[in-house]
Amino acid sequence: MAQIHPTALVDRRAELADDVCVGAYSIIKAGVTLGAGTVVHEHCHIHGNATLGKKCTIGPAAFVGLPPQHLKHDGANTSLIIGDNVIIRETATVHRSIHPDPDHATRIGNRCMIMVAAHVGHDCQMGDDVMMANAALLGGHVQIGKNVFIGGGATLHQFIRVGRLAIIAGNESPSHDIPPFAAMRYLGLKGYNAIGCKRAGLTRETLHAIRTAYHCIHTNRTLPAAVAQIRERVPLVPEIQELLDFLASTRRGILPSVKARFGGLGGSISIEDEDL
């Protein structure tokens, strides 16, 4: 039987695995599902149609599954799906989606860590092994790839995408897409995430290909020219194809190279833009 502190309020319609622990003064409402081994510390709120996987750690004082902060939300009991081994620390907030369709649920993958005072907005999609440092904020509909690190105080504009194995420095505020393997600082692409890519076990050949691809981005004024040079100079290993697919599918544009920003060109990279 779940261990529930006498001061906690748990709705009878919530579904708790037998070994779930709920701390003092926490509130768990109807529709919530907590997987085996999950621990909810003191003063947490878990609301709505929120499903948490196995061995998650919530709080203390975390707010999970609350309604979206969106004026068009009509009060429907929308969805949040959280994977296994997810850590959500104190005062962090994770909001449900806008629409009731489960296919549009806010989603957090396995083994993610959402640190103190971080925020995951409505309809966000987060891959496995994402780290959000203190006070990092995701606007609505943000898509985060696997193994991304988001530095403390970073604020990501709604609808942007961040590719796999990217790293975002603290206090940055990107408003355009960040490609896979990128290192973002000074509101631009500083280079590639060398340490993260090495830790992920990418081969030496792949690391060299990624480095060359980012050199192409830094040294060409337009996205089509950068893509053409990548195709010409860089071996088409799977990671490079992943990068090219991401560049081709951007709708908000790609952040510029830091070199371009400090060179006075500025702006985001898009298919139509003349300058990098």
What features would you describe in this structure?
This protein has five helices and 27 strands. It has 276 residues and is of the alpha/beta class. It folds into two domains: 157 residues, Hexapeptide repeat proteins (UDP N-Acetylglucosamine Acyltransferase, domain 1, 3 Solenoid), CATH 2.160.10.10; 83 residues, Udp N-acetylglucosamine O-acyltransferase, C-terminal domain (Udp N-acetylglucosamine O-acyltransferase, Domain 2). An eleven-stranded mixed β-sheet has the order 1-4-7-10-13-16-19-22-25-26-27. The chain has an eight-stranded parallel β-sheet with strand order 2-5-8-11-14-17-20-23, with no helix packed on it. The chain has an eight-stranded parallel β-sheet with strand order 3-6-9-12-15-18-21-24, with no helix packed on it. The chain is elongated and about 65 Å long. The termini are far apart. The C terminus is likely disordered.
